[in-house]
Specification:
By secondary structure, the protein is an alpha+beta fold. It contains four helices and five strands, in the order E-E-H-E-H-H-E-E-H. The protein has one domain: Winged helix-like DNA-binding domain superfamily/Winged helix DNA-binding domain (Arc Repressor Mutant, subunit A, Orthogonal Bundle). A hairpin with a 2-residue loop joins strand 1 and strand 2. It is globular, with a radius of gyration of 14 Å. This is MarR family transcriptional regulator.
Length: 119
Amino acid sequence: MGHAAETGIAMRLGARHAFAHEQLLMLIALGGAPKCAGDLERFGTGTVSMPKQQIARELGTCSKTVERSVHRLLLDGLIERVARTSESGATMCNEYRLTDDGWDAARRLVSTVASQLQR
């Protein structure tokens, strides 16, 4: 089973390729890229605060694909985007948080990946 940029985010779900928005959903659920396969069974904070370019590197894709994935997850009601600013008022990268429906979808995805790893 391949992993996005060797970070532990699954590139395959069963017999099919994992879509970028599914990979992003897993990344957010885990609170970042897992450090080892065992991390896939433990959920993180359900939030990620990193620039789209860094998310793209973590997933082994481009920032335009990340933008499309964020847009899709927002439309599907699986995540919410929170704008952030520093104490000085400077714009910072957005925070992406799972909604309740996002948690349900992420649990299904992560459970599929975890069962693949046990085979």
